[in-house]
Amino acid sequence: MTILLVGVVFAVSACKGGKDLDGEPRYGVVLLRGPITDARKYVEWMAELREDDDVAGVLVRIDSPGGVVGPSQELYRAMVRLAEVKPVAVSMGAVCASGGYYMACPGTRLFANAGTLTGSIGVRMELTNLMELMETLGVRHTSITSGKFKDSPSPFRNMTAEERAYIETIVLDLHAQFTEDILAVRDMDNATLQQIADGRILTGRQALAVGAIDALGGQEEAQEWLEKATGKGELPLDEGPKDKRNWYEKLAEAVADVLPLAGMTHLAGPRWQAEYR
After folding, report:
1. Please, what are the domains in the chain?
2. Active site residues
3. Prediction pTM value
């Protein structure tokens, strides 16, 4: 198994070599796939593209159901800064929802397929109540805190009405931040936005009808728009974020992915985690 994994890692690394485009006129490409949990490598890559004078414009391809609030907001701000200096075409894949849509909004022009699932403008905070299970197992939990909200929400007891009201204020404030940021970069009126900002999913066609996107089309249409907007025509594509891990780091991750218990330690999730998802 170890030999096989080493071979796979080196084979993938070799295939990703590609041509070095530094110093050549080109379009930058930002690829975001899957849940948003850590924005660092994407923010760094967008900063590189923003500061590189040889990058004429940027194509951002998003296929994500959303994710954690903080990283989603980091991606939004990185997109704002990028779109201030270069044309940014956003191509939405199968899903570009919630935190994914949050990231997309600052783009210069947003494209989605007619059947793309987007929107889902809302906030979710979930808590698993383990109280009855703990009682069945005969396990008691004691929490000594410096204030009445310090252990809220707790999975080991029922939520009080006061705690629920407190947590709802957090969720509503995060939702307000989401809609305020959309209005800051999209040509939508608040009344229209509030009608769809209840967590509902929109198809690409529905999103176009309410102004949540700019045009129907896929990655090819987005790239064609970018070529016209920049006046540069066809240029090489420089995709990222680049994988800067060494072979050992890639191997360690590959091994972790095949271990029977991989990923099980985070099933309960952090006690405090809100999601644009």
Report:
1. 22-254+267-276 (3.90.226.10)
2. 98, 150
3. 0.81
